[in-house]
Amino acid sequence: MLPDLHEIRTADNVGIGYDPAGIGSRFLAFGVDTLVQGVVVIAALVVALALAPAGIAGTLAIALFLLVPLLVSVGYFAVAEALTAGRTPGKRALGLRVIRLDGGAPGLREALVRNIVRIIDLALGIGVVVMFFDRRSRRLGDLAAGTVVVREHRAPTAAAPPGLPPPILRTPDAGPAIDGVEHLGNAEWGALRTFLSRPGMAPDQRARLAAVIAERLCERLGLAPGAPERQWPPELLLERLYLQLLPRMAPAPPGHGMPV
Amino acid sequence: MTPEQFAARRQAGWAELESHLAQARRGALRSVPAADLQRFGVLYRHAASDLAIARRDFAGQPVTEYLNGLCGRAHPLIYRGRPVRPSALPRFYASGLPRAVRAAGPYVAASLALSVAGVLAGWLSVRLRPDLAATLIPDSLFDRMARGEVSGGIGDAPVAASLIIGNNVKVALLCFCGGVLLGIPTALTLLANGWVLGTLASSIHRDGIDYRFWAYIVPHGVIELSVIVLAGATGLMLGDAILRPGLLSRGDALIAVALRAVVLCVGVASLLVVAGLLEGFVSPSDLPTPAKYAIGAGSGVLLYSWLLLGGRTRRAAAPRLQLDAGG
């Protein structure tokens, strides 16, 4: 995982990593939200102008309209974030959301703090400078409210299960048993699986990468310098290792499942 | 176990959690029936434990990333602050806000001191260099005074009130958010606000006390200046949290104080509506000067008896009595 991930701990002490949103996508979301605000203000203006000739009611309408831009500029974000659990229309359009540092949804107080401090963030572009230096791209409002804007990963449908494409295997058989294969575990098998299922690599690139991985694995297997496995083409070694580890990985341990 | 087998075994639960997530309206589970809510909690915990397994066994694989995203989307639905209900507002104004004001006592005093310093500096500078009065007094103030004196018609009053409310709310919010820059913008705002009053009062009083001037200031000024001082106090709270965080880290201290202070800031800023209406309708009106003074004094008495007395409870005497009875 990336080092800049914002990791929270659930009550069961499971880590969930959130991907902080960058300046670009947040700027675009801000643009969309500004458009929405503009529509609200223009709608209010139209109503006010329609009422304007109507004597005292018209004066009141104009007077109230004068308050709209201020209400909208601070109120829109605060209310929208508090009501939608951190997903204003603009953020939703860009797949962003505001969360508290502990991963919870922001309440009205957090939303108010981060959006009142927006005044300072927008002034002289201080916010952008602060975002640039903060590891999680937080602006001053986020720092004061204890929030971070994260990317919300698009939900894959249940019909399209998450997984790697099938591994590309050129040798259907596992070959002779490799010495020390019992030293390898989940991590190595996962690496082999990822390498073998990567599509569209140039053949010479693939061979070079395979040689690097094979060298590392040979060390881990504890193979002597003259072992026959070292003479195999690296890609063949990797495929055979994968296939020999597969039976150990494939049978699911009993009693592991949960009644879901 | 391969990631595919792992996913195949658990997918039903994940898909069910996904469908619950899709049901959540506006990022909340308010519209979800109680039985489903319990199921949601169970599904979420199972997904989280699957994530723990996946992080250990399938680090960096798509299934892990998928589970991470699934749990990441479900987590904020369960963990969140208490929702704010409109029905809590009367109680907030009756006791919460006055208590918050009193709790901020030292900061209010500091904010008041800064404002008074601004007034004194403004007063003295005009007194010492009367020839520079025109430069010392901010321009817009003359305009505003002129408009205030000229406009007596009720027709413009609503518009003026709106402009005034908007402007003052901006100042109050600026006072709050200046806190994140160590409170320096807050202090400058308070000084400048005092300066305006000081220079203006000084130049008008060169020829003795002008009761008409104060009749224009007092009706709304009591509330307006009090609110600016209180809003300034919230900004100073933030600055102080950064400078003297105590046992917390500076960042955590700022967050804790900001979440408390924002309630105070927004609460007192709402009073600016009252001040703005007084400034738009009463201050420039043709009411007799004594009536204007009475309105100003009345607003002050109401404001401060509310802020100083609201939400006080009688000292609990019960524990002491019990001790006496026991001994």
Number of domains of chain B: 2
Outline the biggest β-sheet of chain B. none
One letter per element, helices H and strands E, the order of chain A comes to EEHHHEHHHHEHHH
Gross morphology of chain A: elongated
Give helix % range of chain B: over 70%
CA-atom Rg of chain B in angstroms: 28 Å
Quick overview:
The complex is a heterodimer of chains A (260) and B (327). Chain A is an alpha+beta fold and 260 residues long.
Which short descriptors sum up this protein?
heterodimer, A: 260 residues, alpha+beta, 2 domains, four-stranded antiparallel sheet, elongated, disordered C terminus, B: 327 residues, mainly alpha
Describe this structure in words.
The complex is a heterodimer of chains A (260) and B (327). Chain A is of the alpha+beta class. Chain A folds into two domains: 6-151, no CATH class; 181-246. Chain A has ten helices and four strands, in the order E-E-H-H-H-E-H-H-H-H-E-H-H-H. Chain A starts with 5 loop residues before the first strand and ends in an 11-residue tail after the last helix. The model of chain A is unreliable at 255-260 (pLDDT under 50). Chain B folds into two domains: 3-78; 93-309, no CATH class. In chain B, 77% of the residues lie in helices and 0% in strands. In chain B, helix 2 (34-57) packs antiparallel against helix 3, helix 4 packs across helix 11 (250-269) and helix 5 (105-128) packs across helix 9.
Topology readout:
The complex is a heterodimer of chains A (260) and B (327).
Chain A: E1 6-9, E2 15-20, H1 23-51, H2 55-83, H3 89-94, E3 96-100, H4 108-116, H5 118-122, H6 126-133, H7 140-145, E4 147-151, H8 186-196, H9 203-221, H10 234-249
Antiparallel strand pairs in A: 1-2, 2-4, 3-4
Chain B: H1 3-23, H2 34-57, H3 62-78, H4 89-103, H5 105-128, H6 133-136, H7 139-150, H8 157-177, H9 184-204, H10 211-243, H11 250-269, H12 272-282, H13 289-309, H14 318-326
Helix pairs in contact in B: 1-2, 1-3, 2-3, 4-11, 4-13, 5-9, 5-10, 8-9, 8-10, 8-11, 8-12, 9-10, 10-11, 10-12, 10-13
